[in-house]
Amino acid sequence: MMSLTTLPPTPSRGSDDEDRGSRPRPGLSQREEEVLVAWIKADTKEEVSRELKVAIGTINTYLARIRAKYAAVGRPASTKAALVARVLQDGIIDLDDL
User: Fold this and answer.
1) What is the radius of gyration, based on Cα positions, of the chain?
2) How far is CA 56 from CA 44, 51, 60, 73, in A?
3) What number is the average pLDDT over the span 67-95?
4) Which pTM was predicted?
5) Could you tell me the sign of the dihedral formed by the alpha carbons of 82, 64, 29, 47, in that order?
6) Alpha helices per DSSP H over the chain
7) Which secondary-structure segment (H or E) carries 96?
């Protein structure tokens, strides 16, 4: 006859708010968040440039600073997909906003 082994209970993960609080935040400015969210929602940097009425070079500068801030807190985001993950993790936007 086979015996069943009982596994210990899996610890609960906690709420999303607790998870967000445990991650180091990069301290993005309001404008950095605005540029980042606009870029995530757009297909191109040109769209963001037109929407925010700034040069594409300015968009690139903001994105470089944002990436540097995430890297500085140990949460690098070298791709657009990684930045999407970070803003979702940090509660900057909700999945429904995409």
Assistant:
1) 19
2) 10, 11, 6, 26
3) 94
4) 0.75
5) negative
6) 16-22, 30-41, 45-52, 56-72, 80-89
7) none
